[in-house]
Amino acid sequence: MFRFRQPVVDEPSHQKPNWWIAKELGKRLGLQKYFPWNDVEEYLDTRLKSVGLSLQQLKKEGVVKAPKQPIYFEEGVQPNFWTPSGKIEFYSLQLKEKGFDPVPKFTEPESPPPGYFRLLMGRAPVHTFAKTQSNPILKDMMEENSVWINNDIAMRYGLKSGDYIKLKNTDGVVSSKVKVKATERIRPDSVFMVHGFGQRSRMLKSTYLKGASDAHLTTKYKLDPLMGGTAMNVNFVTFEREA
Amino acid sequence: MARFGMAIDTKLCVGCMDCVVACKTENNVPEGFNRDWITEEAFGKFPNINLEIRSERCNHCEDAPCVSSCPTGASHYHDVGGVVLVEHNECIGCKACVASCPYDARFIHPDGYADKCTFCIHRVEEGKDPACVSVCPTNCMIFGDLDDPNSEISKELNSRKHHSLKPEAGTNPKIFYLT
Fold this sequence. Notes:
Chain A has 243 residues and is of the alpha+beta class. Chain A has helices at 18-28, 40-49, 55-61, 93-97, 136-141, 151-156, 214-217, and strands at residues 2-3, 63-64, 117-122, 146-150, 164-169, 178-183, 190-194, 222-223, 230-231, 235-241. The mean pLDDT of chain A is 93. Chain B is globular. Chains A and B meet through helix 5 of A and helix 1 and strand 2 of B.
């Protein structure tokens, strides 16, 4: 099924669409060959043409149902794992040829330094990324995030639910103040925050400095040498008492 | 005579608060107030913990202290289903009901009257489910007649373990949590 959302009003202050921003960034980074289309409409049209549709048709009809094709094994799809053997490979000759362990093994993550905790980030069902925090109804339900701290750790540091603290990471970056949530629902060596809070633009009047931002504390990241995945839950923070 | 209640499956509820949003928009609940809300309660010690997520609201008690404490009769049992309601025009905003409710389910509306969950009686009388029940993405909430042995809610309560909140308050709440 193809659905198309069309703008109802023009952007009020010449804001630029995501795709335009990506293309312009690409240009400046010397990656223009990946953006051979003039604008997002041309890009979408190219993709739609590949399945026998067009942007014009989608604009007119809004929703286009493509003929149903089998996508599950139960529907008779023959699996293809894009490996030399065509099967799931527990032992990979391709990896071995590239100099990696042919049977990748679990690598234990490093422990936090003394007095520090691994900063984990995630989502709440109420909010979508960092863009719904000022919606009046959603804001009413979750106005700020909190930092989850294991009960035993909170007690050791003399913290209780509702206290405000700041978090400081190993690079010296300090967060805005954030409410403590002492709980059994987190392991003692880690703390957790919902993403999308601690916004620093004064223009965001209803969300300015409400809670803290995990993104600002994510000054380090790790790359998986094997498949290039980016790990962001690799920063360590300590508690700073809010004066 | 119907006797309306609600059974909420804590094994299905994920605490997404869609019920809270639905209630706020259906009933124009003013900003800063809620007729329903989510409670998350963890039992045990890490890593052996159990979590119960509950969508909570007025329990529409059969022996409701908010009704017996109301000096004007504004708080009353509705003819249909025994739902506890407030007659806004008769309420003087004295807050006796707010203080007497064991579930903290009531608040004083900025317009001056006590307000709370109505089981969306305006929808129920049209044959619809309450707004919260109708939007639940996991279908964890069952609204129905506790006196009808063939209703879905009666069947669930007969076959599943369940508990109510603060039974020791002795108010005979009509919201049950399936566990």
